Amino acid sequence: MNAYGYIEVVGLVPAVEAADAALKAAEVQVVGKENTGKAMIAVIIKGEIGAVRTAVNAAEEAVNRIGKVVNTNIIAKPDASLENLY
């Protein structure tokens, strides 16, 4: 694992769409989801950096068709202690 990717969306249906699009676009794993407040949900994925970039981009495109993306982020080469979060 070389990267984490996050996509924060408004609503559960867009979160499921984001996870589905990410998994179909690249060889990544969905690590979890977090409710970030006010109906916002962050979907967290991990994998190789190129795969994570591809997955986050695909998820963002998919969600933009049906809902609202609040934020995305990719953390390349995360510190080993981040593994303890998920």
TrEMBL record:
<keyword id="KW-1283">Bacterial microcompartment</keyword>
<comment type="similarity">
    <text>Belongs to the bacterial microcompartments protein family.</text>
</comment>
<dbReference type="Pfam" id="PF00936">
    <property type="entry name" value="BMC"/>
</dbReference>
<dbReference type="GO" id="GO:0031469">
    <property type="term" value="C:bacterial microcompartment"/>
</dbReference>
<dbReference type="InterPro" id="IPR044872">
    <property type="entry name" value="CcmK/CsoS1_BMC"/>
</dbReference>
<feature type="domain" description="BMC">
    <location>
        <begin position="3"/>
        <end position="86"/>
    </location>
</feature>
<dbReference type="InterPro" id="IPR000249">
    <property type="entry name" value="BMC_dom"/>
</dbReference>
<dbReference type="InterPro" id="IPR037233">
    <property type="entry name" value="CcmK-like_sf"/>
</dbReference>
<protein>
    <submittedName>
        <fullName>BMC domain-containing protein</fullName>
    </submittedName>
</protein>
<dbReference type="InterPro" id="IPR050575">
    <property type="entry name" value="BMC_shell"/>
</dbReference>
